[in-house]
Amino acid sequence: MVGVAQLVEPLTVTQVVEGSSPFIHPILRLFFPLNMPSHFTVLVFKLKFGVIFLAGHILPFKPFPILLTEPSEPPPEIKYLINKGDYRLIDTDDTSEACLLIYNDRRLNLQLRTTNKPLQLCIDFINGKAKHRRQYGGGKNQPLAKACGLNKHPDWSILDATAGLGKDAFVLASLGAQVTLCERHPALYGLLADALDRATHDSSVADIADRMKCIYQDSITHLNTYQHINSKLPDIIYLDPMYPERKKSAKIKKEMQVLQYLVAHNSNNNELLETALKTAMHRVVVKRPKSAAPLNECFPSYTINSVNTRYDVYVNS
Ligand SMILES: C[S@@+](CC[C@H](N)C(=O)[O-])C[C@H]1O[C@@H](n2cnc3c(N)ncnc32)[C@H](O)[C@@H]1O
Are 192 and 123 in contact (CB under 8 A)? Predict the structure, then answer.
């Protein structure tokens, strides 16, 4: 009989297959509860007697490159993602990455180097547009707040299942709602977690930040957990799925360029809407461009319009 030791020696890795593909998605889903394209690494070992052995791992995303440029420590959540392997530390002289996170000046930035002039993005809940909208945004009568029912039910809890850059979630939290932000992209989640960490330490927005909680998970997976745990269902589920952008890239806003680069092709919006409709206690709100068809051709109970945007409201009870 051939012993294991005999078989394994000499152990040679003949091939490393690495990839990221939506095409393996349906097959993987038979074995893993993933709702997104996945990154996989498979090592092919050639053993004795022509025996081949495969080993590997599957991550929801390829480890995202991060550059730490200063001695100050990043927030605990960022360190956790580095230790967990969702982020991959790179050196200052590594210029090969088209898109990377940079921890610099006590904040996490995302840099996109696909154009001549690199784009840099950082989420800021304290100053800039967030501050302006907090002060002059129209309060509970603005369309987003009305669509989420905050004008009549200020204590409703909201799950923002497509958190992105957290802009809508911040508006809702600044109007008094408890908002859970669910984001599955590692870089966007990191930017959110870092911005929230800074906001909780700033007296002008700390009370708002305390009403916001970030979760790093696919929202469909997260919503499905409500079937198994005895936890209060979210009153509102808010969805703002990516919409194919028609404008030429030079004219698109910086934020949209970054979102398009990172997440444009990862979409399972129809399944997300179906799951949200099954889970929300009171309503599901979907943000759409004004002239777009309803998501999944599923017609809402009613709509609320603003200049370029339409909120489709699906009332559950
Ligand atoms: C258009 S952006 C949302 C922008 C956001 N409303 C804001 O105010 O900044 C869509 C985001 O949803 C995230 N997303 C899409 N499907 C998701 C899912 N199933 N689970 C978690 N996040 C998802 C994407 O990664 C992307 O960041």
Answer: yes
d(CA 153, CA 285) in angstroms, rounded, equals 15
Q: Which of 28-32, 67-71, 306-310 has the highest mean pLDDT?
A: 306-310
Q: Which of 184, 217, 245, 274 to mutate to test the pocket of ligand 1 (most atoms within 8 A of CB)?
A: 184
Rounded CA-CA distance 26/50 in Å is 31
- pLDDT 10s digits, 36-56: 445 555 666 677 777 777 766
Average pLDDT over residues 164-177: 96
Any atom of ligand 1 within 6 Å of the Cβ of 188: yes
What the chain holds in terms of domains, given with CATH numbers, is 6-57 (no CATH), 64-120 (3.40.1630), 138-315 (3.40.50.150)
What tokens appear for 224 in the block?
A: 């499905």
Cα–Cα–Cα angle for 254, 145, 317, rounded to 5 degrees: 125
Report which protein residue has its CA nearest ligand 1's atom 17.
Answer: 162
Q: Of 169-173, 202-206, 258-262, which gets the smallest average pLDDT?
A: 258-262
How would DSSP label each residue in 165-187?
Answer: TSHHHHHHHHTT-EEEEEE--HH
Nearest one of 12, 8, 38 to 26, comparing CA atoms:
38
Which residue from 171, 242, 273 has its CB within 8 A of the most atoms of ligand 1, so it is best to mutate? 242
Range in 15-24, 37-46, 191-200, 284-293 with the lowest mean pLDDT: 15-24
Q: How many CB atoms are closer than 10 A to CB 89?
A: 11
Question: How far apart are alpha carbons 121 and 255 in whole angstroms?
Answer: 7
C-beta of residue 238 within 8 angstroms of C-beta of residue 172: yes
Using an 8 Å Cβ cutoff, are 306 and 289 in contact? no
Q: Using alpha carbons only, what angle is made at residue 203 by residues 196 and 76, rounded to the nearest 5 degrees? A: 35
